[in-house]
């Protein structure tokens, strides 16, 4: 598990893990009691300067000494259905995918596919590796395993955006990271701008985001303009 300044909610996450599991928390130089909370819940903790998501996950995977590894972040909880499914899993596979439900201001959101993600998070340690995303940015990395993959029922509850301010802070940080990995291109910026209305409608209609009220409209709009902001930042880069 990766964590930074997560003392306030880390305990709840660790209490919802399968009983008897060995927990490793990679603490990214937290300024609060993250490490102390993790140790109080029986976790092995190592504090290390932040070197990016891909590097940190590779390092953490290398510290796992068990045959199976479950990768979670400090803002992700296992619901009861998924927790029971993990405990009962006996399939002859290399990994398992879970559905992830993402919250905004205390409620799940369906717009932009936020609650329709299937993520590979439980895998045989020796068969797994992590790779950067398609554009090479140090975000939205992918886990890859050698062998068959199965799905488990239940979901990860991703409570990463308790407020609009927290969403905007991550939006700004993530778009800057992605922009740094892209070449400057006015053509790509104009293309992203031209397709923005279609992406907005797709985010609302395809995933039923209209049922989410203002949260769905907000997420659909922000998701639609994400690529525009990334390309604009790349274009402005000196």
Write down the oligomeric state: single chain
- The proportion of residues in beta strands is 15-25%
State the order of secondary-structure elements, H for helix, E for strand. Answer: EHEHEHEEHEEEEEEHHH
* CA distance, first residue to last residue: 36 Å
**What's the Cα radius of gyration?**
19 Å
Q: Tally the beta strands.
A: 11
Q: Segments where pLDDT lies below 50 for 5+ residues?
A: none
Mean pLDDT: 92
What structural class results from the helix and strand content?
Answer: alpha/beta
How many helices does DSSP assign? 7
CATH architecture name of the largest domain: Alpha-Beta Complex
What percent of residues adopt helix (DSSP H or I)? 25-40%
Summarize the structure.
This protein is α/β, with parallel strands linked by helices and 238 residues long. It is built from seven helices and eleven strands. The chain has helices at 7-15, 34-40, 53-62, 80-88, 164-180, 186-205, 214-236, and strands at residues 2-3, 24-27, 44-47, 68-70, 76-78, 95-104, 107-108, 117-124, 128-131, 142-145, 149-161.
